[in-house]
Amino acid sequence: MENNKCSVFWFRRDLRVHDNTGLHAALKSGNKVVPIFIFDTQITEKLPKDDARISFIYDSLKAIHEEFQTTGGGLKIYQGNPLDVWKQLLAEYDVAQVYTNRDYEPYATERDDAIATLLATKKIPFHTFKDQVIFEKKEVVKKDGTPYTVFTPFKNQWLKQFSPQEALKVQPSKELLDALLPRNVEFPPMAHLGFVRSSIAVKPVAFNHLEDYDAIRDFPWMDKTSYVSPHLRFGTISVRAMVSLALKTNATYLSELIWREFFMQILFNFPQVEKRCFKSKYERVAWRNNEEEFEHWCNGTTGYPIVDAGMRELNATGYMHNRVRMITASFLCKHLLIDWRWGEAYFASKLLDYDLSANNGNWQWAASTGCDAVPYFRIFNPTEQVKKFDKQRAYIKKWVPDVEELTYPQPIVDHKFARERALKTYKDVQ
């Protein structure tokens, strides 16, 4: 065990050095700081070894390590069950305090409670900070103290409470970074961790179209989205930076950032939504759950070009345009009457920006089972969606090059028939 007491900073969903609230606090603690990251095997063992998100995390961590090296420090990488890793850390270092940024998902809160309990047995303070949101937990609530379950009132209150102070960035100075330990630590090769580099890459952020976001956001053929969502998910960019930018550029883009926080507080305050319908009556929906039809949806062979384009884009790149996410989700739940949880799990396995709260919230929105969801009788017509948002079929032709071939499948189900079937099925539980 090293002689001098140190603070430990634990990176999780905040993979950056600058504007990192918990890291900044740790560097100001007065102790030398050991920054760590844990590849949680309870998560990674459920993923393919070449999962694109692991490659992105690995590269982001390596960039942090290299930045720390400029002041003589380094980032220590661990792998295993976090509780076991922390027992190892406490044997390895004389830990005075632990710092980290808060995570709000059910698994994360259980994990952190277990770590806090372990640290408490050693009388080590566990300092956690708000970093991945502007407002957290129960900070934006109704007058009676209960959480909002409808977006617009939540947004209005969010905007009312917001002040520029909320988006102030923290920048650690070089002098603070001099406090970093350990010295001369080596960053492990990816193969040593059991991972294989993915052929799918996370795209860099593109902010050059934000001023026109509200006018162009629904047109997948334009390919002018910001691609910021994986960076927000893993914290390579801070939410404060994004909110500050949105305030200067586009109110609709700001609304999307507020939607993100709305779904986060829904998951925090109603953790049952992870596995259950927010509106409990919809647990009685008689899902068909046809496995063959689900495979056609997954593979992009439903015979509906806009649905197939979205699924093929997802499978090939880990991305899917937001308008198309709504169309594909509606199609699965309403046209095929397949449980939203099947679609949610498939998106979770593929999306580079997968975030439990947003994925769950948006799937329950599409399935009409969630809070502030689309009414059950609103069923997207995929053909009409093409006319509105991909009129020249540019997006479709890009991702479904066989759309004009004789080999392209016939529609898996007739729209009019599927719509009437869905209406009847949903009416039965009203």
Explain what the structure shows:
The protein is α/β, with parallel strands linked by helices and 430 residues long. The chain has three domains: 1-131, HUPs (Rossmann fold, 3-Layer(aba) Sandwich); 133-168 and 205-269, Serine Threonine Protein Phosphatase 5, Tetratricopeptide repeat, CATH 1.25.40; 280-427, DNA Cyclobutane Dipyrimidine Photolyase, subunit A, domain 3 (Orthogonal Bundle). 46% of the residues lie in helices and 8% in strands. The protein contains 19 helices and five strands. The protein has helices spanning 21-27, 41-44, 52-69, 82-92, 106-121, 151-161, 174-177, 213-216, 229-234, 239-249, 251-269, 291-299, 305-317, 322-335, 340-350, 356-367, 382-389, 394-399, 415-427, and strands at residues 5-11, 32-40, 76-80, 94-101, 126-129. It has a five-stranded parallel beta sheet, sandwiched between helices. α15 (340-350) runs antiparallel to α16 (356-367). It starts with a strand and ends with a helix. The mean pLDDT is 95.
Features:
3 domains, 5 strands, 430 residues, single chain, alpha/beta, 8% strand, DNA Cyclobutane Dipyrimidine Photolyase, subunit A, domain 3, 5-stranded parallel sheet, 19 helices, Serine Threonine Protein Phosphatase 5, Tetratricopeptide repeat
